[in-house]
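Journal club side-thread
Mid-discussion, someone asked how the predicted structure for our own chain would compare to the paper's figures. Pasting it here so we can look after the session.
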Amino acid sequence: MIKYSNGQKFNKISSKSTKKPRKLGTFSHGNRGMNLEEDINLSNDFYRSNGLCLITKRPTPINVVKVDYSKGAIITNAYFEKQSTTDYNGVYKGRYIDFEAKSTLKLTSFPLANISSHQIEHLKQVLKHGGIAFFIIEFAKLDQVFLLDASYVIDFYENGNRKSIPYKDVQTHGFEIKKGLTPRLNYLDVIDKIYVNS
């Protein structure tokens, strides 16, 4: 019998497990958007390591209430201190950048319910102070990712008569982000075209 250093017994996993492995490329509510986030994080790592820009993911602010140190400092009780603003921010070519990343499984539209009012207010402030603000929107089933300017989304959110932005509008008013290996999502190329070199 094998035991771990802490005295726990090693339990052999049965080869007759009834749990089916998740197929590659499938999504669940729990991991929706995680592939997009991973692609953006890897792109940011590439950009940073090549000295192109400094864009980081904002941590979600939490207040830790209880920690179980008997199991290796595991947080057992915590709550969000306040609503987070947007997912990413940083600096590129002397310009402040702030953006939110969203993924949808819908084929024909992007639901505005995915956006919080405090995110809209935050991005309005970024624009007011001269920053670059946008959304990166993934249509996961279509395998397409777009950069959509925050001012367009804000106007649609506040003045539109729909609960979602049609896919065709995202195509028309947004810019498709090229996918590759390094970087995974070359969103700096789009930023150059519409914000920096225009």
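Post-session note: Residues 1-33 have pLDDT under 50 and may be disordered.
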